[in-house]
Structure formats: structure tokens, C-alpha cells
Design brief:
Largest sheet: 6 strands, antiparallel
Number of helices: 5
Order of helices and strands: HHEEEEEHHEEEH
Helix content: 25-40%
Number of strands: 8
Structural class: alpha+beta
Distance between the termini: 39 Å
Strand content: 15-25%
């Protein structure tokens, strides 16, 4: 990752954003996730993006992305079945809890006339602090300008949703 971020195409990325990417990448690697050795096109999310998948499995489900647009990076975590993690979220620092309870991704119930579903294609519903929350999936779990000092909290959230398998001891 360090070698890639030194390429001329990433000269616009701040040193602090590069430091975050390197530190986050180290944590994801430690947990068994990988970016495939490349930083690809960001399409509509920015110039570039890093995509994290689980190593050693056939499925290439996406678990996290780092978008690298002009003006600062964005960390996106792909989190599901939020109700199972309600207690963790309710006790999390405010900047983590805000991802689930804030207005940013609040579903506006913009219905498609054909089938009655939200235009987002998928709405997440769960409860936090006794309140029903509905969020539109394409807008969920973004951390704008993530901070390197908060990586332990981001990783704690990630491992809450994707716990590490415990090694089986030989008898």
C-alpha cells in the first residue's frame, strides 16, 4: 500500500489521509482482509477507491471501502443486521453511534411507483435507544474524513459485525 500511495497519481492526497489509509490497511490485513494489491477507479465516489474483501475465500463480498476523492477520504463500512449489535452501538462513542442514529442516511420514503420500494433499492430498519430507525442503504455507514486516532473504534465496530473466528485448539 505504501508503494502505491507514493505514485504521482496520489500527490493530491494529504499526508494525514495517506497515514490513515496505511494504518487502516494494516489493521484490515491483521484481521484477514485484503485490498488485492491495487487501488482502483472510484467511479462516482471519487478519483480512486480501495476495496477490502476477505482473504482466502472464494466470495468477493465487500466489507469496507476507502473512497479517495478530492478534499479528503471517506471510509465506508458494509454492516448488516444492525439489531443484533444494538447494545454495542448504544454504548459506542457518539461519532460511531451517529452513523446509525443521525439524519445523514435517514430514509425519506421516496417510493418507486412500480413496486412501492424506496428508490435506494434497500432500506435498513433497526432500533437504537428504543427508537425505530430506517436508513437508505446507499447512504449508510460512511465516515467522512476518518481520523487515525479513532481507528481502534472503527476496528472495534468492524469486528463487532465481523468477529474473528477463534482458533480450534488441538487436543
Amino acid at each position: 500500500m505504501d508503494k502505491l500511495l507514493k505514485e504521482e497519481r496520489f500527490n493530491y492526497v494529504s499526508d494525514s489521509d495517506k497515514a490513515f489509509i496505511l494504518a487502516f490497511n494494516d489493521e484490515m490485513t491483521r484481521l484477514g482482509y485484503d485490498f488485492g494489491g491495487k487501488i482502483g477507479s472510484g467511479y462516482c465516489w471519487g478519483k480512486y477507491m480501495v476495496i477490502y474483501t476477505k482473504t482466502g475465500v472464494k466470495s468477493k463480498a465487500v466489507y469496507a471501502r476507502i473512497y479517495i476523492p478530492d478534499g479528503g477520504i471517506v471510509l465506508r463500512l458494509f454492516l448488516n443486521k444492525v439489531d443484533k449489535h444494538q447494545e454495542f452501538i448504544e454504548k459506542a462513542p457518539a461519532y460511531i453511534k451517529e452513523m446509525f442514529s443521525g439524519d445523514y442516511a435517514k430514509c425519506k420514503h421516496d417510493r418507486d411507483d412500480k413496486d412501492g420500494n424506496c428508490r435506494s433499492g434497500f432500506r435498513k430498519s433497526f432500533s437504537i435507544d428504543g427508537q425505530l430507525i430506517e436508513q437508505c442503504n446507499p447512504q449508510t455507514y460512511y465516515i467522512n474524513h476518518p481520523e487515525i486516532l479513532k481507528i481502534p473504534d472503527y476496528i472495534a465496530l468492524f469486528t463487532e459485525f465481523y468477529p474473528q473466528k477463534k482458533a480450534v485448539k488441538n487436543r
